[in-house]
Each structure stands twice: as structure tokens, then as C-alpha cells.
Specification:
The protein is of the alpha+beta class. Among the domains are: 8-140, Glycoprotein, Type 4 Pilin; 220-253, no CATH class. It has helices at 8-59, 118-122, 221-224, 236-245; strands at 72-74, 77-80, 94-96, 107-110, 137-140. The strands form two sheets. The protein has a three-stranded antiparallel β-sheet with strand order 3-4-5, covered by helices on one side. A two-stranded antiparallel sheet has the order 1-2. The protein is elongated.
């Protein structure tokens, strides 16, 4: 028997399937590394802002430049041992200041490789930002903001000449004092005031109320002299007890 080989169609289909799988795997791998580098860029930008503010606190200004791989030192104290570089190109991030040795502000720009990164829209750099709209991500000092695409850069303010102010000359003001005129005065006439007659309010003296509890109904003293008592025979002892307490002992039978 002769062995049957692959046909040209079968080989073509197999190659196409392998190509699709390889392309998908390559894209996923590339996207993974791209997002990883973008995450590192954003972390480095966030971390570098703290030492830059410390530099400003110690010197009163921001550094004129940031060279990657170099330390950041202020007044003899090291703030960063090594300024970070771009993870893909290995070059310095774009650092912008006012061009003097003691800049009052700073801006740092870079490009995130993943264009759909949410951080780009959060800072408003979808159309580009920075000089010539070259970048899509950046951070700045708190006293300035990112330059968006289409905006003109703000010129560095220069010190305007100052002129010596001339003190104003006081102009005397003529004040007219009015002359009082003698006006006839009329003596007030005393008006008799009626003296109110006293009103006698009768005072009602309340009659004293005997203290102590109000006695409950009990046999009257005359009733205690009646024998036999007008109570049932079984309650005679209570009758004798009450009359004795009231001071009217009943007569003996």
C-alpha cells in the first residue's frame, strides 16, 4: 500500500490556523509588556513628585533639569539616588522649567504606549499635550498645569520696571463754619399732674385648715352611748374599739 500524504489545501489550512494562533499570542504578549512599561512610567512620575517638592522646600525653587541615572541632591542631602529613565528608550523624560537656575515650576511629559489607557483621558491629553502636542501623559507642580494641544505656552513673566511713586500733594479745603442765629426760646409751661388716689385692695385672709388627715366616717359621740350598737352582733367589738379610740367609750351592758 502506498501512504497517503497531505494535500496542498490541508497544508494551507494548517499554516493559516498556526499563523492566527501565533499572531494572537504575539499581540497578547506585546500588549502585556506595553501595559507593564506604561504602569512603570506612571509610578515613576508619581514617585518623583515627592522629592521634587522636598527640593523646593530646601532651595526655594525646582531643579533646572532632570537627567536620568543621576542623583537629585539639595543642600547636600540626597533626595533620589538615581533619577528614573524611560523603560523602553532608556532616555530622560521630557522635563520643562522656566529656563532659569531657580525655576518656580516644572512639567514632566512622556508617551504611554497603550493609547486607550484611562489615565490619558483623566488628564485631558487625548489630543496630545506638551510642546507640539508630542506627549499624552504628564505631571506638573501644583502652581501650574499641563499644556494642552492647541494652547499657546505661557511666557515667562519678566520683572517690570518699577517707578518711584510721587506722594500726592494735599490740597487745603476751605471749611465754612455756620454762624448761629439767635432764635427766641419759649419757656416751657408746667403742666399740673394729677396725683392718683390710692386704691385700697381688700386682703382676704384664708381661714386655717386643720392639719392632719381628714378622719374617715366613724360613729358620732352620741351614737357611742347607744347600747346595743346599731351594727351586726359580729361587729360589736369593732364598734367598742372605735368608740374607745375616739374617747367615747360605750356604756357597759
Amino acid at each position: 500500500m502506498k501512504s497517503r500524504g497531505f494535500t496542498l489545501v490541508e497544508v494551507a489550512v494548517s499554516v493559516a490556523i498556526i499563523s492566527v494562533i501565533f499572531s494572537f499570542a504575539l499581540n497578547e504578549t506585546t500588549s502585556h509588556f506595553t501595559r507593564g512599561r506604561d504602569s512603570k512610567r506612571k509610578t515613576e512620575f508619581s514617585n518623583i513628585q515627592v522629592p521634587l517638592e522636598q527640593y523646593y522646600d530646601k532651595t526655594g525653587c525646582y531643579p533646572a533639569s532632570l537627567d536620568c541615572g543621576q542623583p537629585l541632591v539639595a543642600n547636600g542631602k540626597m533626595l533620589i539616588a538615581e533619577i528614573p529613565c524611560d523603560p523602553k528608550t532608556g532616555t530622560s523624560y521630557y522635563y520643562e522649567s522656566d529656563g532659569t537656575s531657580c525655576s518656580p515650576w516644572y512639567k514632566i511629559y512622556t508617551n504611554l504606549e497603550f493609547d486607550s489607557d484611562k489615565s490619558i483621558a483623566d488628564i485631558g491629553c487625548q489630543e496630545g499635550c506638551g510642546p507640539d502636542c508630542q506627549y499624552n501623559y504628564g505631571v506638573t507642580s501644583t502652581n501650574t498645569r499641563i499644556l494642552y494641544c492647541g494652547e499657546e505656552p505661557t511666557p515667562t513673566p519678566t520683572q517690570a520696571p518699577t517707578s518711584t511713586p510721587v506722594p500726592p500733594t494735599a490740597t487745603p479745603t476751605l471749611t465754612l463754619t455756620p454762624t448761629p442765629t439767635n432764635a427766641p426760646t419759649t419757656a416751657p409751661t408746667a403742666t399740673p399732674t394729677a396725683t392718683p388716689s390710692p386704691t385700697i385692695t381688700p386682703t382676704i385672709t384664708p381661714s386655717p385648715t386643720p392639719a392632719g388627715p381628714t378622719p374617715t366616717s366613724a360613729p358620732s359621740p352620741n351614737a357611742c352611748q347607744v347600747w346595743p350598737p346599731p351594727w351586726p352582733r359580729g361587729l360589736w367589738w369593732l364598734w367598742v374599739f372605735l368608740c374607745t379610740i375616739l374617747g367615747y367609750p360605750p356604756p357597759k351592758p
